Amino acid sequence: xxxxxxxxxxxxxxxxxxxxxxxxxxxxxxxxxxxxxxxxxxxxxxxxxxxxxxxxxxxxxxxxxxxxxxxxxxxxxxxxxxxxxxxxxxxxxxxxxxxxxxxxxxxxxxxxxxxxxxxxxxxxxxxxxxxxxxxxxxxxxxxxxxxxxxxxxxxxxxxxxxxxxxxxxxxxxxxxxxxxxxxxxxxxxxxxxxxxxxxxxxxxxxxxxxxxxxxxxxxxxxxxxxxxxxxxxxxxxxxxxxxxxxxxxxxxxxxxxxxxxxxxxxxxxxxxxxxxxxxxxxxxxxxxxxxxxxxxxxxxxxxxxxxxxxxxxxxxxxxxxxxxxxxxxxxxxxxxxxxxxxxxxxxxxxxxxxxxxxxxxxxxxxxxxxxxxxxxxxxxxxxxxxxxxxxxxxxxxxxxxxxxxxxxxxxxxx
Length: 414
Known about the structure:
Elements (H helix, E strand, L loop, with lengths): L1 H31 L2 H17 L6 H15 L2 H27 L1 H8 L4 H14 L2 H10 L3 H25 L3 H23 L1 H5 L9 H33 L2 H14 L1 H7 L2 H14 L5 H23 L1 H9 L7 H26 L5 H18 L4 H33 L1
Helix pairs in contact: 1-8, 1-13, 1-14, 2-6, 2-9, 2-11, 2-12, 3-4, 3-7, 3-11, 3-14, 4-6, 6-9, 7-8, 7-9, 8-9, 11-12, 11-17, 11-18, 11-19, 12-17, 13-15, 13-17, 14-17, 15-17, 16-17, 17-19, 18-19
């Protein structure tokens, strides 16, 4: 348990250092661009995150099977890494070609004039599709230092590139998107350094059925991670589509700041997942990592949400300037929703590590409710934020009830 706590502290520091650079980048871009341009950038950026949802499954999948293979034969991890890299490189090229052919449609949906903005997002997406393979193996090997640096270096590089391209050269939205491309490329380099011994080591063939097992496990993990990504990002895209550009810009400001309540404690699940997966493989049934992660997540996410509830206007003006002060009411709502999502994500991650997937029905129903209600009720950005909050609260309450029931069932059968 002491090592688990130490790993949590390390990951909290490294990943949230990366998150700090992400928010410094957003603050810098928000102050250089006007609200309409800022809304444009974040709608494109959120669309890229949503399009990358299919590969958000990879860190969890590769982490779980790295844990399993390392216990059986460490050289098999080399084969897992090589096969994963080749497959995702091919997927990245397919995504890039498909995206380029859809540029006109994407421009019209988001009301954007330049092809280059969409193309830059697609290039960042293509590079980002490969990175999760490396991150998952690092996570499964418990190399949390390189895992954190691999994640944080992307944010740091994006921030430094943004200072040059946006603040100094004045390249606007396209400069901000190009900075993201450079950040993703640098992250691959750091991850490769962290795995250089495995990249040079001889490999052994994977056991028959391993790839089938990976594919079978990937599907429910893909559903869960995709639904969480949609729940946490689709609102910016929908507000951009349904509302006025100025209102979308204000919403993006509140959403960017409010998501701190999710990303600040979310670093903890990167330690929780391999810890629980390893215990599950060995047949242990220890609830303490889950309870500790739940408490820490509630304190971190809920604490930030409480601060935003007390001083929303002051935070907006301090960080983004007076032009965005009207986003204060939105900040309170979005931050509460993101704190609840962070707590629910602990339940999801713990369940995935134990191969328990029933929560996906709860999550899917909540996302369906959110999308349906936004479609019918989108008269203002605040109504969209309220829908996200209602949906997230419902998902959390039902998921916790299900998790408690699972605990009682396993304890009574044990």
